[in-house]
Design brief:
alpha+beta; about 25% strand; 12 helices; about 25% helix; ten-stranded mixed sheet
Length: about 400
């Protein structure tokens, strides 16, 4: 069921996906016509989708003290909302009503490798643009109310059904309610409505009002959200005294994005967009600007950071492990990006800069797990040793047969 107020000759708001084309089209087509421009519902984006995490496992994860989770209960009769920001406990779940409640858990991809694997179909986007996978579990009627996100999001239905309503009316009011803890819209009138089944996915660009409600029973939705630094956040890290004068809703944007050619690279086009987002930055030295942004974007919205080894390895010890075909695993909280200049390459990891070769920097950004096949040169060994000792790479020895 969908209603439309768009001109008949406009691009479709609903397409059908497939295993080969989860977006229902090529990444280049999607980026050109929909990315940061208009919503898109992709039916059957992930055929025969099976959620990689079950509701009980999600609830258990939400009870971990370091996990960001919220439990939201809606009293429908009185239209009152209660938000429990955590940390959550089993008693909190025991007190929930039969329906009209929602559990939201952030950064699930950092805690579960099977959930992290859902990011693979989105590799056409720069890896540093991806924020996290948030999972929402809701009982019948559960949701968070009509709201607006200031970033791109892909809403993948994983379990049960969810009714989504959105508004593409550019003149729709976006003022908020003042009587609830959530940033809910005070007024919301939908222009399109759909019922999503497992495997269906709804893409929403920034600023589109939307409201999702569990329908017919338990429901679980996987939200693949993007990182979109606001001008205030970018400027605040570079010059704190300027940030307070810039509006929150102005954010880094890339509507002209094309599929990533080199995983993790902060390329020239990204730097030009950065200069657009920060007009005064155009006067800065390009090398300084790249270095600042590489550090900033790899620590931006990072809830935790890896811990350095208690007993650092030396070059010889690491060399023996690599010679034995040990596997290197990227720490789930380590965010990476890299830039190239005329004569050098720099890898940025969780706010720190490391000299690197282009090939190794790209491999580290592209692969969460890899075996060093070729013998690294001296510079590459220095980089790998630093990343291992700083906790960003974990060494896993091969299993003995």
């Amino acid at each position: 069921m969908a209603t439309s107020k768009l001109p008949p000759k406009s691009l479709p708001l609903e397409v059908r996906g497939s295993t080969k084309h989860p977006l229902g089209m090529s990444p280049a087509h999607f980026l050109r016509d929909y990315w940061q421009k208009r919503p898109l519902l992709i039916r059957n984006a992930f055929p025969d989708f099976e959620p990689p995490l079950q509701p009980d496992d999600l609830a258990g994860l939400a009870c971990e003290p370091t996990v960001l989770a919220r439990l939201i209960v809606h009293d429908e009769k009185r239209d009152r909302w209660h938000v429990n920001p955590g940390p959550l406990s089993e008693d909190d779940f025991a007190k929930t009503p039969k329906d009209h409640w929602t559990l939201l858990v952030q950064d699930v991809d950092k805690w579960d490798a099977d959930v992290a694997a859902l990011l693979e179909p989105f590799s056409f986007l720069p890896s540093w643009r991806v924020d996290d996978i948030m999972i929402s579990y809701a009982e019948e009627g559960g949701g968070v109310g009509a709201h607006v996100d200031q970033y791109d999001v892909f809403l993948l239905q994983g379990l049960g059904q969810r009714h989504w309503a959105i508004s593409t009316d550019p003149g729709a009011p976006k003022d908020f309610r003042h009587d609830v803890e959530l940033k809910q819209l005070a007024h919301f009138e939908s222009t399109h409505e759909w019922m999503l089944d497992p495997g269906d996915m709804l893409y929403l660009p920034p600023g589109v009002p939307h409201d999702g409600v569990a329908f017919g029973g338990p429901c679980m939705t996987f939200s693949i959200g993007m990182r979109a630094p606001s001008q205030a956040e970018l400027t605040g890290d570079l010059a704190d005294h300027i940030a307070e004068h810039l509006p929150e809703e102005l954010r880094y944007a890339d509507p002209d994005l094309t599929p990533a050619k080199a995983t993790g690279e902060i390329d020239r086009a990204a730097m030009e967009r950065l200069k657009t987002a920060l007009p005064f930055a155009a006067a800065l030295n390009d090398t300084m600007l790249r270095d600042w942004f590489g550090r900033f974007i790899t620590r931006y919205r990072n809830a935790q950071v890896p811990v350095p080894l208690d007993k650092p390895l030396d070059d010889a010890a690491l060399g023996k492990q690599l010679d034995a075909s040990a596997t290197l695993l990227r720490h789930p909280w380590s965010r990476m990006a890299w830039t190239r200049a005329k004569s050098n390459c720099t890898l940025y990891v969780s706010g720190h800069a490391y000299p690197a070769t282009t090939a190794l920097a790209q491999q580290l950004c592209e692969q969460r797990e890899f075996v060093v096949i070729h013998k690294p040169n001296a510079a590459e060994r220095v980089l790998l040793l630093a990343l291992v000792n700083d906790g960003h790479l974990l060494v896993r020895k091969p299993r003995r047969r």
